[in-house]
Structure formats: structure tokens, C-alpha cells
Amino acid sequence: VALAVFAIAALTLLRMEGASIQRTADLDQRLLREVVGQNLAAEWLTDPSPPALGDVQGQVRNAGRAFAFARRVEAASQPGVIRVVVSVREVTPGARSQAFTLEFMRPGGI
Question: On the CB side of 59, how many CA atoms lie within 13 Å of its CA?
């Protein structure tokens, strides 16, 4: 009986370890999506000329992984300001990921 109880406890610990490893991998993917999104936002914020109004899609690589981004630029309610929304997800083959979305405002030069 003691051996059966020990075996059940060992299996439970192995399942918990597997779940912990999966959560760690999810956090790694999430962190990279956020870093890519913030890097793109930094590029667009510091560019002397504002991005054109409309939608743009593209891909970038970071840390050996591929990421797809979608950017929407529209005029904000405040004159001379544009609203930028960027959504990033990992598209590396075999990787499942949800999109990370970031929104910011910047002078539009209008």
C-alpha cells in the first residue's frame, strides 16, 4: 500500500513539473511578443516622420524567432495627434501564441 501511495505522489509531482515547464515556456513567448511590440513602438515613436495613416502588416525576427505584426494608424480626436495600435504574435513554425496589442499616441505632423 505504501508503494502505491508513493507512486501516486510521484506521478502527481511529475504532472505538476510538466505544468510548471509549460507555464515557463508560455511566459517566455509572452515576454518576447511584448519586447517585439515595444521595440516596434520605439522605432515608430522616435522616427522623425510619423507613420502613414492606414493599416500595415509585416514580419520581424527577434531572438531567432519570427513575429508578425499588424499596425493601424488613425487620426486621434485631438488635432495633430495620431493613434497607433500594434498587434504582435509569434509565427515561428510550431509555436502557438496569442497576440500582444499595444496602443500609443504620437504627434502626427498634420
Answer: 8
Residue pair 85/92 in contact (Cβ under 8 Å)? The answer is no
pTM of the model: 0.74
Distance CA 31, CA 95 (A): 14
Identity of the residue numbered 35? V
Question: Which mean pLDDT values do the consecutive 10-residue runs of the chain (110 residues) have?
Answer: 78 74 72 93 93 96 93 93 95 83 86
Which residue, among 80, 82, 33, 34, has the nearest Cα to 54 in the 3D structure? 82
> Cell numbers 501564441 label which residue?
97
Per-residue buried b or exposed e for 60-73, using 16+ beta carbons within 10 Å of the residue's own CB:
eeeeebebbbebeb
